[in-house]
Amino acid sequence: MASPQQHDLPSPVTTAGRDGLDALLADPARAVIALDFDGTLAPIVPDPEQARAHPDAVRALAALAPRVASVAVITGRPADVAVRHGGFAGVPGLEHLVVLGHYGAERWDAVTGAVHAPPPHPGVAAVRAELPGVMEALKPVGASSGAWVEEKGRAVAVHTRRASDPQAAFEALRAPLTDLAARHGLIVEPGRFVLELRPPGMDKGAALTAYVREAGAGSVLYAGDDLGDLPAYAAVDKLRSDGVPGLLVCSGSAEVTELADRSDVVVDGPEGVVGLLSSLAHAMSSRP
Ligand SMILES: O=P(O)(O)OC[C@H]1O[C@H](O[C@H]2O[C@H](CO)[C@@H](O)[C@H](O)[C@H]2O)[C@H](O)[C@@H](O)[C@@H]1O
Q: Its family (predicted)?
């Protein structure tokens, strides 16, 4: 597994991944590097408010960003929250960083420091109002015991990581929350012991594809750890078939296995992601 100090690049396990890495290294100035936040740049912790980028993440991103076309963070978090928890603002080297929040519905640009977002979906307020009653009604069967609600502005997320049985609580809540979301025109986004009720119409795949097109990228790297990253994986597959080579990186964990099976490279969590970013920056700086 890679560590932040290592400079050895990993060997992708697929031909498409090897082509992607070769393209990234051959022409870094046309490469887009896109990464998820929680579980990829930031270690998973029990309280989302306490999550912070890996201590070496900003340094690694700042070393890489001036060598590539652009770097973007694509996250389920509100964009300003990811910027704050990531420590991404005002960093030399990250002057052009973009954070696409709420699965791409929001955009923060380091150049302006401003967040652009669409009007709020009315279903979120309705779900917010009904959610306490739905969770209270599930208490007699123990389903919502220890579950709690994260207020996200444009969405609400029900977390079960701190429940006595996180997986049982997750499974018991899934159907009622899906029903609640559907009644108000929202969807449920499942993640690592979290069920997020959010507006439809945007996902990380659409966000990544639009961003790669906007950048006129000749290659792309995407790194993620969770189910919400799968649309971005599908987008990289599609970009590859359209002639844009790509590298799929999984920030590996015992909690989610779906991404590892579809990745070109699996690293050991955020520590491994930071190591990979550092290795890429080193390799790009060593080339003529
Ligand atoms: O797209 P991401 O950047 O991966 O964000 C997805 C969700 O991440 C957060 O929850 C996850 O991280 C928490 C802090 O480590 C952890 O406690 C939780 O169990 C994880 O699911 C965030 O709180 C959610 O709002 C995001 O949807």
A: Belongs to the trehalose phosphatase family.
d(CA 224, CA 74): 9
Residue closest via CA to ligand 1's atom 6 equals 76
Please indicate whether residue 229, judged by its CB atom, sits closer than 6 Å to ligand 1.
no
Give residue for tokens 């770097």. 71
What does the pLDDT look like over 245-275, one tens digit per residue? Answer: 999 999 999 999 999 999 999 999 999 999 9
pTM of the predicted protein model: 0.96
Among 38, 85, 186, the mutation site with the greatest number of ligand 1 atoms within 8 A of its Cβ is 38
- Spatial separation of the C-alpha atoms in residues 253 and 255, rounded to whole Å: 5
Q: What is the ipTM of this complex?
A: 0.99
Span 122-198 CATH architecture: 2-Layer Sandwich (3.30)
Give the CATH H-level superfamily of domain 15-117+202-286: HAD superfamily/HAD-like (3.40.50.1000)
65 lines ligand 1 (CB under 6 A): no
Single-letter residue type at 53? A
Q: Are residues 163 and 146 in contact, defined by beta-carbon separation less than 8 angstroms? A: yes
